[in-house]
Amino acid sequence: MCQIFARQDPVGYTPVTRRLRLNGQSTSIRLERLFWDILDDIARSEGLSTPAFVSKLHSEVLIAAGEAANFTSLLRCTCIIELRRRQPIAFAAE
């Protein structure tokens, strides 16, 4: 089983930093390429650019929680939730 994970393409876990604006403030977010790919897919499905989607998510988190503590972790979890939403049977079996 570990071979599935151990032999993955390193390009997927290469960190990528993107600069964008969150609520009008310029910032940088560093995530692994695979997470950016998933965020790009989510944004596209919402009819938004990735920066617009991430900014919208950030705003909604501020409204819901009052703060966006560890926002990069929230983005990673967003990706996992999206993958579970796409493939509920595969994740339910685990």
From TrEMBL:
GO terms for molecular function: DNA binding. The keyword DNA-binding applies. The keyword DNA-binding applies. Keywords: DNA-binding. Residues 15-81 form the Ribbon-helix-helix domain. It comes from the Bacteria. This is Predicted DNA-binding ribbon-helix-helix protein. It comes from Cereibacter ovatus.
